[in-house]
Amino acid sequence: MRFKIELDKRGYIKKRESFDLEFKQNFQGGDNLLKNMKSLVGMSNNKGGSIIYGIKDRPHIPLGMTNTKYKDTDPATIDRLIREYFSQELIWNSEVFEFNGKEFAEISVKEAENKPIICKKNKDGIVREGAIYYRYRAETREIEFAELKNILDKEKEKEKLLWMQHIQKISMIGPQNVNLFDTYKGEITVGNGKILLDKSIIDKIKFIKEGHFVEKDGEGFPTLKLVGEIEGLIEPEISIPSDSLYPLFTKDLKEQLNLNNHEIKCVLWKLKVKENPKFHTEIKSGKNSNSLHKYSESLIPLIKRMLNREKFLETCLLDYKKSLKKK
């Protein structure tokens, strides 16, 4: 989030402090920093927001910061403070910007993915152990019943939807093909055996939301890609049955869909099949790391439906040709 300073005729900030916006004249350390983190936690428990530094209070005039404490404070100090006093880390960002030759700063925070964020310990009447802070209009205070109930209801709904998604995925691939990855213990359960990952490897693994597999305009299924160099302790008798999940080769797709080499390439590119692990896997083999592409059987009916749409294949061919010209 980047705050844009807009002034009225008197030179005052047009925007007022609200549930997602707070103004401060200067960045401060110590107890004042904890108060600021309390405000950010309150915003994160709501819908996110920002604290803007360099704005005079009453009236809100953009004077700019008058000290260097913002630049002098290591971001790690803020992270440590959040971890010390609150139940989870915040997803926050900070930046310095200029307006009329004066320097301002913004710390913005995203809405928490898992709510509520709870205070872990007391501190001199500033924060209280067990308290849940929530950002109301221009004020951060302990949450009231209505807002807490709303948060808990939404979290229950998220958990229910997550279970439904897991069950749907299991039903699609069959329970006999399901392997469980326990990120806490570092174990991948495969049949009656386990693949064990060292803790140092687990800490390096990142799940990144990336891309969408699109069947209809504006719709898609979010995918996760596991990245990182993984070297762990693997029980030698265990192998992952890729053939049962991805039994089809490219030639099988061509035969069943009655498409030539170029047509199947364009269709797979258009639908971003190779970015979706539900439909595709890539197996590297040999000294030159040659790739072998395999596909799930569920891909066939999906492509058939798309090919039944008017001019779908023609669009795939044309768009693929355009993409080559852009490179």
Give an account of the 3D structure.
- The chain has about 325 residues and is α+β, with helices and mostly antiparallel strands.
- It folds into 4 domains: about 20-140, Methyltransferase, Cobalt-precorrin-4 Transmethylase, Domain 2, CATH 3.30.950; about 145-175; about 175-235, no CATH class; about 240-325, no CATH class.
- It has helices spanning about 30-45, 70, 75-85, 145-175, 200, 240-245, 250-255, 260-270, 300-305, 310-325, and strands at about 20-25, 50-55, 55, 60, 90-100, 100-110, 135, 140, 180, 185-190, 195, 205-215, 220-225, 235, 280-285, 290-295.
- The strands form 6 sheets. Strands 1-2-6-5 form a 4-stranded mixed β-sheet. Strands 9-10-11-14 form a 4-stranded antiparallel β-sheet, with no helix packed on it.
- The radius of gyration is 26 Å and the shape is elongated.
